[in-house]
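INFO batch 0412 | record 1 of 1 | parsing
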Amino acid sequence: MIDKLTGAIFLFQVVVVIVLGFAGNIWKDTEARKQWYVKYPEDGPWYELLVIPLRFELLCSIMIPISIKVSLDLVKGIYAKFIDWDEEMYDHDTRTPSHAANTAISEDLGQVEYILTDKTGTLTENKMIFRRCCINGVFYGNESGDALKDVELLNAVADNVADVIRFLTIMTVCNTVIPIRSKSGTISYKAQSQDEDALVNAAARLHMVLISKNGSSLEINLNGSLIQYEILDILEFTSDRKRMSVVVKDCQDGKILLLSKGADEAILPCAYAGQQIRPFVDAVEQYAQLGLRTLCLGWRELKDDEYNEWSYAFKQARSTLVDREWKLAEVCQILEHDLEIVGVTAIEDRLQDGVPETIETLRQAGINFWMLTGDKQNTAIQIALLCNFISSEPKGQLLFINGKTEDEVLRSLERVLLTMRITSSDPKDLAFVVDGWALEIILKQYRAVFTELAILSRTAICCRVTPSQKAQLVELLKSCDYRTLAIGDGGNDVRMIQQADIGVGISGREGLQAARAADYSIGKFRFLKRLILVHGRYSYNRTAFLSQYSFYKSLLICFIQIFFSFFSGVSGTSLFNSISLMAYNVFYTSIPVLTVVLDKDLSEKTVMQNPQILLYCQAGRLLNPSTFAGWFGRSLYHALVVFLITVHAYADEKSEMEELSMVALSGCIWLQAFVVTIEMNSFTILQHLAIWGNFAAFYFINSVVSTIPSAGMYTIMFRLCRQPSYWITVVLIVAVGMGPVLALKYFRYTYRSSAINILQQAERSHGPIFSMGGLESQLKSLEKDVASLSTSQSKFRNSVYEPLLSSASDPPTSTRRSIGPATFDFLQPAQSRLSSSYSRNCKDN
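INFO prediction complete | emitting tokens
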């Protein structure tokens, strides 16, 4: 938005230079040559026509404030430090503070429209606990809820039941876990995956202990007996294969075994012909309904010739440099077939504290949520219900998109889309669920239809998705010019985080890959609420004021120069000397406005209690062409006031040019101070020192310069300060300049109050926020204006410009796309923002 404003001002500057330069040349040829004191030569050089336009170019060059870049970078750096220093976002469990790695997008946090979140480790604690299992159709742990305490399973282990021992062997061997023996003899495990750690520890509690792993050999202690295996090959887990296998050789009998574990959709289809897999399918469904993470385990014995032939192909694939991952996957698939499915594991991953409350609050702020997870559909749905991601019947309704062929997926997609269109006015909370297989077909064949569905739905659950699909979904929402935030905790979330407008990484148990790749890192998901509502909103409000004020102060001094040109024969003569102009931008006007970093229109407590007010930031209500036009008009009016009052006050005085310019400059400085003061919402000692101390600095600096004979301002300030007319002129400038501004602000604050104004009044009355008798009725009076936020759409909207007038009484010129359920009556139901005509500016990629 700032870039667009800068471009508009540049075009305005070019027009002014051309018009005034042309007018100046005309006046010079028609009037100036008649004046005896001008002394223009009769015949000048050919480039003389460029002199006056170049003078005006120099005068108007300050229209675009060079200091805005430095000021914004400085305050954004301070915003980032506020995030780093926020003690309420410090995770005491992991001793992890929040951190802002990117200082350039803090204001974007206040305009987030979609949050795309991972599940495991992001919404959940990523503390995996082995709860239940199914071995060869026998369920363990169903009654007690803990398979490790199931007497039947413990007896089976003690009796060396073959299926149970095979099941535990796969749990213990098929992983990349490293056992570490302490000096006291106890064994701990270091694992890349929390699932593997949970499985190995569970097997150890069932008396199959992984005691050592050195190079290609490992040792297991089973009920006091030592078992050794030689690791021949590891078929690593990938997000595409969704399974992992190891090839080991039993050192006791020399048999070569393939041990595999993975998702049910990756393991069950590899079962040998004739095996009854229905019990395992039922087990997976049952555990998923409980919100547990499931893995299927299988194995088969390999013949020596088969393994040797495959091993050669595997080594060739590992050594290739072209399409290495694809060739490895192809070779792995050759071996992973005809498996004997042994059983299913069920692992519990508990929800983090504060997740339901955080999601509910952010949904009230009008933010839409998508869950992108690699888990099974039922598991993801159960977690979504627990964390308020979706609502249960009858308040909520899930729409499923599934299918294995293009025709099936298309029919399912069209059915869901039709339901969304029909129920767009229904207050029921709708969400769609899609799995990775159907999503792959959709993103390739039916992207445009899916884009419309994505816009109509506030909530989506995408299951069994790969990291690349996560990134594609973020890109799809960005193509519709939504402001997206992606949050995750693992390496598989990095692509999604980097693709989003704002990336947030959680410093979790899966390492720091996501946190290091993200713009912001936090310790827990619940801190996201404060990051957006407090830091994001404050940053947007402060940046909006600072950027527009920077243009205002530059336009003010520039307009005075333009008005003076009409009194100086449109010659391009500057009213102010170079020292005054330099000090004006560097000292007099820059320091006070930098204290905006401390400004708070509402307390943090009020902001957190009323998340709906984030709507004003999401809609770009404080920074858009309409608000900038107001600042432009204010600078023009103030320039007119300063110039006319100064000129008329000293019209009959025998004053020097420097004296007149100092009076005008003084008027500008006084106006700047009062403008900053009335636009601030809260004050600290630093703000008072910066604003009012600026007066002392102004008079001190000019008094010092006035003592230097060669500075061109010799004794000017001393003479002015002794004149009553000087002080009367300055006071008159402030009164005439600020009078209409104060009257307009009073009228809007009193008779056309916005929701923020009402909350400010409640805070200043030191009463409960919702205890004001007229709050509800005043909010209802805004319903008609703000309702248009959800119905009228700008045809050509981009991620930077989302205009909305700064006054609730003015008709909005553009709107945001989605509004969540709200406590305030002026916020409309979520579905009212929808348009069946799908007239949005979406780009198909």
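INFO post-check: The radius of gyration is 35 Å.
INFO record closed
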